[in-house]
Amino acid sequence: MRVTLWGSFANFVLLVFKLIAGIVGQSSAMIADAIHSLSDFMTDIVVLLFVNISSKPKDDSHEYGHGKYETLATSLIGLVLVGVGFVLFWEGANKIYGFFFLSIPLDSPKTIALIAALLSIVVKEVLYQMTVWVGRKENSAVVVANAWHHRSDALSSIGTAIGIGGAILLGENWRVLDPLAAVIVSLFIVKVALRLVVPAVNELLEKSLPKEMEKEILDIISESPEVRNPHNLRTRRIGNNIAIEAHIRVDGQISVTQAHNITREIERKLRDKFGEATHIALHVEPIQ
To answer: In angstroms, rounded to a whole number, what is the distance separating the alpha carbons of residues 150 and 161?
Structure first.
């Protein structure tokens, strides 16, 4: 929450400064960059709302907890990134086409726009490093997603700085560097967005855990000498946690208490490996 609040404040300040710099500096690229910062500010608000909800304990309405709210937030951030990437691509491609085929001249940006782009690169990269460190430390997918949104803004500002700098230093014939850089950066933004959206959508669609993790789960269950043939394994992810369901076979002559103790020991091993909040349901059957 703290790192996201800092990021939100920085995004708001950058948004205002870049918008003023884009208007005063006659730079359409900087105005587009300011719109990108607006999307960052909006996703910060989404993160603040959804992380707060996802951290709530389970209740009568959400017996598996609220982890999917964070997954939903990650999806929203990714979709916003996709939209921003396509908008930047479309605007840049139109300017390139107009410059080369319709002889439409491009405006010459002012120095204030270049200063805003360089400042944005530094600030956004610092925010990325801070946010991604916290996200990985807290194992929060939505905070990591928000960190990548900071970096996408830094990449966008790099393209903007190259375009504005080239237009200022190299003259009228090189002003096309601005939209050309925007197109290249937009492709990186879309690539990052898809890396965020696809896993989140898979989780919302209840996709199973990777085969390697399922094999690891079966291996842990099989470590118990009393257990035979673990089967009917079902897995899924719930936000930062996972859910495991499986059938195990034990000696049909042992008592219910003994069978219960066996399952408790397996659950302990699984939670030691995958986290205390792991949801586990084991169905006991007699050995056939």
So the answer is: 16
